[in-house]
Amino acid sequence: MTRGKALLAAVLVTAATTAATPATTQQPAKQSTQQSTQQPTQQPTKQPGSVTLITGDRVTVTGQGYRVQPGPGREVLFSRQMRDGHLYVIPSDALPLIAQDVLDRRLFDVTQLLEWHYGDADTPDIPVISQGFSSQGQVRRLAALGMSAARLPKANAAKTWRDLTQARTLAAGKTKLWLDGRMELSLTVDGKRYLNLADTPVTVSADRQVTVDTRQGRPTRITIDDPSAQLQDGFDYELVNGAWSTGGSIGRIDANSQLFVVPSSQAGLTYSLTTTWLSKDQKPSPYVYDLVDRRTGGLPEDPSRAFKQRDLAKVTATYRGPRESGTPKLGESSRFSPGSNLRSPVGEIPLPGTLVQYLTPGVTYESGLQVGDALMFGGSREAKRGESRGEVWNTAVVGP
Question: Which residue segments constitute the domains of the chain, with CATH numbers given?
Answer without folding.
Answer: 41-179 (no CATH), 185-307 (no CATH), 313-398 (2.60.40.2190)
